[in-house]
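Long-time lurker, first post. I've been practising inverse folding by hand and with some scripts of my own, and I keep getting stuck on stretches where the structure tokens seem ambiguous. Below is the full token string for one chain I'm working on. Before anyone asks, I'm not after the true native sequence, just a reasonable design that respects the backbone. If someone could post their per-position residues I'd love to compare against what I wrote down in my notebook.
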């Protein structure tokens, strides 16, 4: 064989090896990503840098085979993705963790070596107050659950029962042999999030007269605002006692105890604010306070869901995108009540393939497909509207990497995009969300007077908008929002738009107090950097670039 042939053969073999070998980052690159994750997770909400950059997360922790387990999550970080690792936290009354240290050990020690923040997903912590005979069968006067006027204990916790029992149960959660072992493996994490599913049955405000304790304290016939206030005021010390008990179990002075945050699924205001007459039944609003939860919890994971059990979709007025606009003013209020409040969003497309109401099946019946790209478009809208700390995807315990990874990668890519693009990073940190004052939010039923003038409408007008008034089922071709930096005449905008059903060319999007820009909007989302009276530049391509970008006088 000649030297030329030998060289050619070697190059061919080398190319084949490179093509078949997964991309491996250098240790220094992995450390850079880990440092970025740690830095952003540790930033306070109100800091000179601006909004902390987002991280990706998951509700499925791979406790069942095939799921998004710790080893998978750490491998994603090693590949350069900005992800907050999540582990399963077994209930203290369960023994399913015995013999399963292998689930934790490798990934946990790797997280320790990289000094990563960590999180734990678990069921609702207070449920032990109801399911344990030690609490369930206590005498009525000592019982933490609802006791009706006949003296019968109900299977739901009460905002009027003994507070000390909540502390006792919280301590049980973090005093287990498993948690102690984890603390040995990783003594000083910079942040430990404990995330509760927060779906245990509890007394709701409009049923307070079924509680003997309430009737003894306040009597019957009180108005709704009073009922909501006393229930909300009752939850605050009880959930705080629960979390303080967890910190005590960790060791108040330990790094775990000092760096722990307790976050609850949907411990936040309802996204259906103003949608229909009964929305207040799902709220603890009282004059002066939208919700008690920022005072009761360290944080919340609000559900940016296209639920399969309702008529909500990603392409109509009744959509996660429109409803999440209600959270903007609630977020501001939450930070006033609790400046350290950890706000994240949970995202889900309503996919439950074994159920008749599976949302992807519904879309197929409409004649459309719900692809990962389409999912990416709506996820990014929620991200840029709210700028949460984490975008946490929901899949049930039966979720698997094999089946669901393409959709999770849409979340991961959306987060990485912010970290890796300088323009997106700058607007995420410093941009101001632009309100569209041409219209008000279409949800206007029973709005409390103090919130009637709050900015709740951020959807930009386009030439494709349907004729108003809109109904809940009106199709919206393009969802677009903008963030602003600077003042006249040197303003800059980041315009984000996505078109759920199909990509659309030459869409006129009207930027408030400026001009219209003619942009091509993809299904997966399109970003444009608009510089006042100068340029319009497409950035962070999600799909191949279209051909035209025009600025039009309004």
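-- Answer (accepted) --
I ran through it position by position. Result:
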């Amino acid at each position: 064989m000649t030297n030329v042939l030998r060289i050619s053969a070697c190059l061919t073999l080398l190319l084949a090896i490179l093509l078949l070998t997964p991309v491996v980052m250098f240790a220094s690159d992995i450390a850079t990503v880990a440092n970025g994750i740690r830095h952003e997770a540790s930033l306070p909400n109100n800091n000179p840098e601006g909004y902390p950059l987002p991280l990706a997360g998951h509700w499925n922790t791979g406790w069942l085979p095939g799921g998004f387990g710790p080893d998978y999550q750490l491998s994603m970080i090693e590949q350069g993705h900005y992800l907050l690792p999540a582990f399963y936290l077994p209930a203290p009354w369960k023994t399913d963790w015995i013999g399963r240290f292998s689930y934790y050990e490798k990934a946990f020690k790797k997280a320790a070596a990289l000094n990563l923040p960590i999180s734990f997903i678990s069921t609702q912590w207070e449920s032990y107050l109801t399911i344990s005979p030690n609490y369930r069968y206590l005498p009525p006067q000592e019982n933490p659950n609802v006791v009706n006027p006949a003296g019968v204990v109900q299977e739901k916790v009460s905002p009027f029962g003994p507070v000390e029992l909540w502390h006792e149960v919280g301590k049980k959660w973090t005093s287990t042999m498993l948690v102690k072992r984890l603390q040995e493996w990783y003594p000083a994490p910079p942040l430990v999030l404990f995330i509760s599913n927060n779906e245990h049955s509890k007394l709701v405000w409009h049923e307070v007269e079924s509680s003997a304790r309430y009737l003894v304290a306040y009597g019957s016939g009180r108005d709704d605002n009073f009922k909501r206030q006393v229930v909300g005021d009752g939850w605050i010390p009880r959930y705080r006692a629960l979390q303080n008990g967890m910190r005590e179990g960790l060791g108040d002075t330990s790094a775990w105890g000092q760096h722990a945050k307790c976050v609850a699924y949907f411990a936040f205001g309802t996204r259906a604010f103003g949608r229909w007459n009964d929305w207040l039944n799902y709220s603890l609003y009282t004059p002066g306070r939208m919700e008690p939860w920022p005072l009761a919890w360290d944080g919340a994971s609000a559900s940016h869901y296209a639920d399969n059990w309702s008529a909500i979709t990603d392409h109509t007025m009744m959509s996660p995108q429109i409803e999440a606009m209600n959270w903007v003013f609630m977020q501001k209020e939450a930070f006033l009540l609790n400046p350290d409040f950890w706000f994240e969003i949970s995202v889900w497309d309503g996919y439950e393939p074994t159920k008749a109401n599976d949302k992807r099946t519904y879309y197929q019946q409409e004649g459309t497909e719900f692809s990962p790209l389409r999912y990416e478009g709506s996820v990014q809208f929620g991200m840029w509207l709210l700028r949460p700390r984490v975008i946490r995807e929901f899949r049930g315990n039966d979720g698997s990497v094999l089946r669901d990874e393409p959709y999770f990668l849409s979340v991961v890519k959306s987060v990485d995009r912010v970290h890796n693009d300088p323009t997106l990073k700058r607007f995420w940190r410093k941009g101001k969300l632009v309100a569209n004052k041409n219209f008000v939010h279409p949800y206007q039923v029973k709005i409390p007077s103090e919130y009637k003038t709050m900015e709740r409408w951020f959807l930009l007008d386009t030439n494709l908008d349907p004729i108003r008034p809109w109904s809940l089922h009106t199709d919206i071709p393009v969802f677009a929002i903008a963030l602003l930096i600077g003042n006249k005449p040197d303003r800059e905008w980041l315009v984000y738009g996505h078109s759920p059903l199909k990509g659309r060319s030459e869409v006129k999007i009207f930027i408030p107090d400026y001009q219209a820009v003619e942009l091509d909007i993809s299904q997966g989302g399109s970003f444009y950097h608009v510089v006042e009276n100068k340029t319009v530049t497409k950035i962070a391509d999600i799909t191949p670039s279209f051909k035209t970008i025009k600025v039009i006088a309004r």
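A couple of notes from the structure itself: Residues 1-22, 544-554 have pLDDT under 50 and may be disordered. The chain has one domain: 27-432. Happy to go over any region you disagree with.
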